[in-house]
Design goal:
The protein is built from 13 helices and twelve strands. By secondary structure, it is of the alpha/beta class.
Length: 380
């Protein structure tokens, strides 16, 4: 793992990246553990970079975990025909010489556990800090805490030793995806670093004449289901006197699971709240959680991992000193869970499932049951 401190070190890292790609044998398989504009832009941009230096006949393929949820992600995928480039991870058929590449994703992410099958990735490029990673001479791990993974990929793309011309007709869509990824993952450049802003200016310049398209990808319409889920989250929130808010949106279809991220972004702005957790249930035993916190006295990454040991959870500290994170949690109810799955359409069963998860989260995150958690009084 490497943190680049200056331009000279960045050049050395990029030289190693090129060397690692050129020396690999077999195809390159890019995995992303979730679908958002940062992982879309990052994986498509990285695919173009690898293809420029990969050995002859080597293929570069992208596979993603989970649904394409938020409408913005669906628009991006449809507008540029990316469903032909990014494929569901269930379609991946492992080959012995495949080289695994992660972008905007963690090697310890349980969502990629089956796909990686215990093998170490050849390349990891991520803007979320990870513990315990060391690269050897034939691996390239570039992990830094900045606003967007698309920023790191843009730094590769525009580097003079790689130099993919983003103003070429065939490459402008890559510039657009990188610009949208940086803009969105830095919350409209609010949580950006100087490097995010520098790369955003460069890739945005390449699509200056496509401002109408850019605006369409940024100012998208929210579906009615999002506002229904937001309303449900507001109506069911619990806040204790320590400023911790916990709420959920219940059992939702997989494509609505991504709603919890923008909902937690909104609820962390509640007066007298400095930590917000929003959960949802997908399927029979999968629970997703999104966490935000402005309280720097408690590390949300540690709290999540303490509360949900062995699960795929974590958080990062953004450049505006706010923790953001979450993950996927498995609620194994054993044979009882199997019975519940058989009658999952029954409203009373769904409510029972929601009440169970709600009680667990309140006990873990608020330190008591719902009767012990109190709403904070706010001034008019």
């Amino acid at each position: 793992m490497s943190t680049v401190k200056n331009k000279e070190e960045r050049e050395e890292r990029i030289e190693k990246f090129i060397r690692v790609v050129k020396g690999a044998v077999g195809d390159f398989i890019i995995f992303v553990s979730h679908v958002d504009t940062d992982s879309i832009g990052g994986s498509v941009g990285l695919k173009a970079v690898i293809e420029k230096f990969a050995p002859e006949k080597a293929k570069v393929k992208i596979f993603y975990h989970g649904p394409v949820g938020l409408k913005q992600n669906q628009i991006v995928m449809n507008k540029y025909g990316l469903e032909q480039i990014l494929r569901p991870i269930e379609e991946y058929e492992p080959q012995e010489n495949d080289n695994y590449v992660l972008v905007d994703s963690s090697a310890s992410d349980s969502r990629l556990k089956n796909a990686l099958n215990g093998r170490q990735p050849l390349i990891i490029i991520d803007h979320h800090l990870q513990d315990g990673l060391t690269e050897d001479d034939n691996q390239f791990y570039w992990i830094e805490q900045i606003g967007s993974a698309c920023t790191q990929i843009a730094e590769l793309v525009v580097n003079e030793n790689i130099n993919i011309n983003l103003e070429d007709e065939d490459n402008r869509f890559i510039a657009m995806l990188l610009a949208v990824g940086i803009h969105t993952d830095t919350r409209s450049l609010v949580t950006d670093t100087y490097r995010d802003l520098e790369m955003y200016v460069k890739v945005k310049k390449a699509v200056e004449r496509d401002n109408k398209d850019f605006s369409q990808l940024i100012n998208f319409d929210w579906p009615e289901s999002y506002f229904t889920n937001l309303s449900h989250a507001i109506d069911n929130k619990k806040v204790n006197n320590d400023g911790i808010l916990v709420t959920g949106i219940g059992v939702v279809p997989p494509k609505e699971g991504d709603d919890i991220a923008p909902i937690s972004n909104a609820l962390i702005r509640t007066k007298n709240v400095d930590t917000a957790y929003v959960w949802c249930i997908i399927g029979d035993s999968t629970v997703r959680i999104s966490a935000r916190s402005t309280d720097l006295s408690k590390t949300v990454d540690d709290l999540l991992k303490e509360h949900f040991q062995g699960e795929s959870v974590g958080a990062k500290l953004t450049s505006i000193e706010e923790f953001e994170g979450g993950g996927t949690i498995r609620f194994d109810l054993g044979s009882f869970g199997e019975i519940m799955s058989l009658v999952s359409a029954d409203k009373s069963v769904r409510k029972a499932k929601e009440d169970l998860v709600k009680s667990v989260f309140i006990a873990l995150l608020l330190g008591g049951d719902s009767s012990q958690s109190t709403e904070i009084k706010t001034d008019d």
